[in-house]
Amino acid sequence: MVNKPRILYERGTVAKLAKRFGVTEPTVRLALRFVTEGEQPDLIRQVALKEYGCVLQRKPIIIKKEEESHG
Asked: How far is it, in rounded angstroms, from Cα 59 to Cα 26?
């Protein structure tokens, strides 16, 4: 089991962050879901948590192994 982090936010937060950073809303959403890495996504996450009242959540994820085919 893996704990996948993501940042929870209220309606309108993504648009505000996108405008502030001059990026698209999908770019902000990917950063808040920890899909993207780098300086900009890190900064988006940091500002979201410190200035916009967002909350970091760690959700347990179960990774299923694919069955090997015998044949």
From this structure: 21
In sequence order, which residues have a C-beta less than 8 Å from that of residue 60 and are 6 or more positions away? 1, 2, 3, 4
Going by DSSP bridges, is the β-strand pair 2-8/55-61 parallel, antiparallel, or unpaired? antiparallel
pTM of the model: 0.78
Residue 38 is encoded by which pair of tokens? 């780098």
Q: Which two tokens stand for residue 56?
A: 């970091």
* DSSP 8-state secondary structure symbol assigned to residue 37: -
SS3 assignment, position 41: helix
pLDDT per residue as tens digits for the range 3-54: 789 999 999 999 999 999 999 999 999 999 999 999 999 999 999 999 999 9
Domain spans, the chain: 2-61
Question: Which bin fits 64, alpha (ψ -120 to 50), beta or left (φ > 0)?
Answer: beta
